[in-house]
Task: structure prediction
Amino acid sequence: MPTLHIEHPIKDFATWKSAFDRFAPQRAEAGVRHHRVQRPVDDPAYVVVDLDFDEVADAERFLGFLRTRVWSSSESAPALAGAPRTRILETAEEG
Result:
Protein backbone atom coordinates (compact mmCIF):
# COMPACT_ATOMS: atom_id res chain seq x y z
CA MET A 1 0.00 0.00 0.00
CA PRO A 2 1.66 3.28 -1.07
CA THR A 3 1.84 6.04 1.51
CA LEU A 4 2.18 9.75 0.85
CA HIS A 5 4.40 10.90 3.73
CA ILE A 6 4.27 14.64 4.50
CA GLU A 7 6.17 16.65 7.12
CA HIS A 8 6.08 20.36 7.76
CA PRO A 9 6.27 23.08 10.40
CA ILE A 10 3.02 24.73 11.46
CA LYS A 11 2.03 27.94 13.22
CA ASP A 12 -0.78 26.47 15.33
CA PHE A 13 -2.10 22.91 15.54
CA ALA A 14 -5.78 23.83 16.03
CA THR A 15 -5.72 26.04 12.93
CA TRP A 16 -3.83 23.41 10.96
CA LYS A 17 -6.24 20.64 12.04
CA SER A 18 -9.27 22.71 11.07
CA ALA A 19 -7.82 23.22 7.57
CA PHE A 20 -6.87 19.51 7.35
CA ASP A 21 -10.42 18.51 8.29
CA ARG A 22 -11.92 20.79 5.61
CA PHE A 23 -10.16 18.69 2.96
CA ALA A 24 -11.60 15.34 4.13
CA PRO A 25 -13.95 15.10 1.11
CA GLN A 26 -11.04 15.69 -1.30
CA ARG A 27 -8.96 13.02 0.45
CA ALA A 28 -11.80 10.51 0.14
CA GLU A 29 -12.39 11.41 -3.51
CA ALA A 30 -8.65 11.02 -4.23
CA GLY A 31 -8.66 7.50 -2.82
CA VAL A 32 -7.08 7.99 0.61
CA ARG A 33 -7.81 4.76 2.46
CA HIS A 34 -6.39 5.72 5.84
CA HIS A 35 -4.53 8.64 7.36
CA ARG A 36 -2.31 9.23 10.37
CA VAL A 37 -1.42 12.59 11.89
CA GLN A 38 1.53 12.59 14.25
CA ARG A 39 3.42 15.27 16.14
CA PRO A 40 6.93 15.08 17.54
CA VAL A 41 6.84 14.98 21.34
CA ASP A 42 9.49 17.70 21.48
CA ASP A 43 8.09 20.02 18.77
CA PRO A 44 4.41 21.04 18.94
CA ALA A 45 4.91 23.27 15.88
CA TYR A 46 5.48 20.35 13.50
CA VAL A 47 3.23 17.68 11.96
CA VAL A 48 3.82 14.41 10.17
CA VAL A 49 0.99 13.07 8.01
CA ASP A 50 0.75 9.69 6.29
CA LEU A 51 -1.95 9.14 3.67
CA ASP A 52 -2.43 5.56 2.43
CA PHE A 53 -3.59 4.81 -1.12
CA ASP A 54 -4.24 1.71 -3.22
CA GLU A 55 -2.04 2.90 -6.10
CA VAL A 56 1.13 5.00 -6.42
CA ALA A 57 -0.52 7.00 -9.21
CA ASP A 58 -3.29 8.07 -6.81
CA ALA A 59 -0.71 9.28 -4.28
CA GLU A 60 1.13 11.18 -7.02
CA ARG A 61 -2.07 12.87 -8.22
CA PHE A 62 -3.04 13.88 -4.70
CA LEU A 63 0.44 15.27 -4.06
CA GLY A 64 0.01 17.40 -7.19
CA PHE A 65 -3.33 18.64 -5.85
CA LEU A 66 -1.74 19.55 -2.52
CA ARG A 67 1.08 21.45 -4.20
CA THR A 68 -1.07 23.40 -6.64
CA ARG A 69 -4.36 23.89 -4.81
CA VAL A 70 -3.63 23.72 -1.09
CA TRP A 71 -0.09 24.61 -0.11
CA SER A 72 0.13 27.42 -2.66
CA SER A 73 -2.65 29.35 -0.91
CA SER A 74 -2.41 30.86 2.56
CA GLU A 75 -6.22 30.74 2.64
CA SER A 76 -6.23 26.97 2.07
CA ALA A 77 -3.21 26.32 4.31
CA PRO A 78 -3.37 29.06 6.98
CA ALA A 79 -1.12 27.32 9.50
CA LEU A 80 1.63 26.20 7.13
CA ALA A 81 4.91 27.65 8.41
CA GLY A 82 7.36 26.28 5.88
CA ALA A 83 7.71 24.13 2.81
CA PRO A 84 6.35 20.61 3.19
CA ARG A 85 8.74 17.70 2.72
CA THR A 86 7.11 14.78 0.95
CA ARG A 87 7.86 11.24 -0.16
CA ILE A 88 5.78 8.45 -1.56
CA LEU A 89 6.65 5.26 0.29
CA GLU A 90 5.91 1.58 -0.28
CA THR A 91 5.91 -0.87 2.59
CA ALA A 92 8.86 -3.24 2.38
CA GLU A 93 8.02 -5.18 5.54
CA GLU A 94 5.57 -5.11 8.42
CA GLY A 95 5.90 -6.82 11.76
Notes: The chain is about 35% helix and 25% strand. The radius of gyration is 13 Å. The mean pLDDT is 96.
